[in-house]
Specification:
By secondary structure, the chain is mostly helical. It has helices at about 5-25, 35-45, 50-60, 65-90, 105-110, 110-130, 140-155, 160-170, 190-195, 205-230, 235-260, 265-270, 280-285, 290-305, 320-330, and strands at about 100, 100-105. The chain has a single domain (about 5-330), classed as Farnesyl Diphosphate Synthase (Orthogonal Bundle). The chain is about 65% helix and about 0% strand.
């Protein structure tokens, strides 16, 4: 990678094109109540790093597919991410009133419509990624594989599973999950609520790893795997790009935990609710220094996976190597 390569500048530049396309997709929704469309657009247009769609396009380009061709998949992934943020902010979940420096969706449009806007973005995401099948450079088979990947990483085996474990882990660090109280199912078995294997011991470390791999890591991994699938990556390269996305995603969430404690809340754009909600995070379990060390280990693992890729040239992988440095140095 060139020494003068600036990942943040490239990310900001590419984000503008992604935002323009996202806005156009939402604006063109037919036969939709204006208030629902506005609620969807409110969160989609709220800004953010656009890291996940950027990774779709950057990885697709590394495997020979243009940004224009991969853009529907990139926007679909960002729609899924945005829906997850709308629902994550709800009073029943994290009860946040700020997102990206603006009032959260339910504070502006009310809880019922915020839920529906999230639902609409999730379903519209799959309508959008399906557009790739009409592209002769991609075709139906790659589109189907990419759609399945998006569904897996966003659903019960991915982000939603991680979110479920996350809410039940509130208070677990102190010894008792507050969300388990009063429920008539699985009350004596924490693994039932926070791990896929109810026979496994629900240690704090095991639960934390599950949450980080699935809640945040899954969609970041999807960013690179979607691009690789649409670009026709061979099985060996696809395996390594998955490993890269997996490791980078975990490192990203670790640094996110750190920023919740250390970052300027105005720059971060949210109040930082982990402490208020008694969340199980890398910082609450390991402390800042050990969290930083673990993030570095995961990034080292991500870079090693990139080094094993066979098809893309080193130059075409600059954005992915750049992400590795950005994750460790980011302040927002």
């Amino acid at each position: 990678m060139k020494k003068d390569f600036n990942f943040e500048e490239l990310l900001k530049k590419k984000a503008a094109g992604i935002e323009k396309r996202l806005h156009a997709y939402i604006k063109a929704l037919p036969d939709t109540p204006a208030v629902l469309r506005d609620s969807m657009a409110y969160s989609v247009d709220a800004g953010g790093k656009r890291l996940r769609p950027f990774l779709v396009n950057a990885t697709a380009e590394a495997f020979g597919l243009s940004e224009k061709d991969s853009m529907p998949a990139a926007c679909a992934l960002e729609m899924v991410h945005t829906y997850s943020l709308i629902h994550d902010d709800l009073p029943a979940m994290d009860n946040d009133d700020l997102r990206r420096g603006k009032p959260t969706n339910h504070k502006v449009f009310g809880e019922p419509l915020a839920i529906l806007a999230g639902d609409a973005l999730l379903t519209f995401a799959f309508e959008t990624i399906a557009l790739c099948a009409e592209n002769k450079k991609i075709g139906a088979q790659k589109t189907a594989a990419a759609s399945r990947e998006l569904a897996r990483t966003a659903g019960a085996s991915g982000m939603v599973g991680g979110q479920a474990a996350d809410i039940f882990a509130e208070g677990f660090l102190s010894g008792e999950s507050r969300r388990m109280k009063g429920l008539a199912v699985g009350e004596k078995n924490p693994s039932y609520f926070m791990l896929p294997n109810t026979k496994a011991k629900a240690t704090k470390a095991a639960v934390l790893e599950y949450i980080h791999i699935h809640k945040t890591g899954a969609l970041l991994q999807a960013g690179v795997t979607l691009g690789a699938i649409l670009g026709g990556a061979k099985p060996k390269d696809l395996k390594n790009i998955r490993e890269y996305g997996f490791a980078a995603g975990v490192a990203f969430q670790i640094t996110d935990d750190m920023l919740d404690v250390t970052a300027d809340k105005k720059k971060l754009g949210k109040r930082g609710s982990d402490k208020d909600n008694d969340k199980l995070t890398f910082v609450t379990l390991y402390g800042l220094e050990e969290s930083r060390t673990q993030a570095q280990r995961w990034i080292k693992r991500a870079v090693a996976a990139l080094d094993r890729l066979e098809k893309p040239s080193a130059k075409s992988l600059e954005p992915l190597y750049g992400l590795a440095g950005f994750v460790l140095e980011r302040s927002y």
